Prior knowledge:
6 helices, five-stranded mixed β-sheet
Amino acid sequence: MIGEMEIEIAAASTLHCVLEPHDWAFDRLRGAEIDAHWAERRAAIPALYDGPVLLAHSVSRGETALGVKFFETRFSRFLAWRDFGFPDAGVYNCFSMPALRSADGAFLLGEMGADHSAAGAIYFPAGTPDPSDLRDGMVDLEANLLRELEEETGIAPQEARLSPDWTIVYAGPRVACMRIAQSPLSAAELEMRVNSYIASQKKPELAGVRMVARRAELAEPRMLGFIRRFLEPLLPP
């Protein structure tokens, strides 16, 4: 787990995310170890897929902007890097997250399903960027955010209003680019809507949802620490 003291929160009005080649020493030097780890994880969770994903090899923080240089790798490489404790300090998992908020102020979080590489963890709908998020050489994290929101919850882009600015949560090797996605539905309506969508899916990514309306509810041990830090100032006691 990433220590709470390592978590920082900043605002950004713009993101500048590009794709750039990178020689990842972790992959090059530890390939056999990574392959063995992948075989073990696949044996435990056969649904895992070794598709292309985008990690970052440079993150630059400005006063109002975030600059990120992404490179393409495979999910097996990302998973080993994560499971081995993030051994390469020069690489980051930079991703977007929609903080879906109900009309009465509760936030919807998902519980990752049994076929997920982080099964049981509780956080906002999200996924590692991949080549489908590329637009003319740029990595479109807003498109990634909206895609993950719809894929995991069934909430289409036109059904939620995004806040104008990004909240960037720096948690060690994780860089979470978050925006509030405001729904016109109440917490009860939103929970029912998303649970109904999950039930209709043959292979849903989420096992269920958690509606969080107060800070006291952040004590759930399976909730990632950086999610708690993001939500603490937005919720009443």
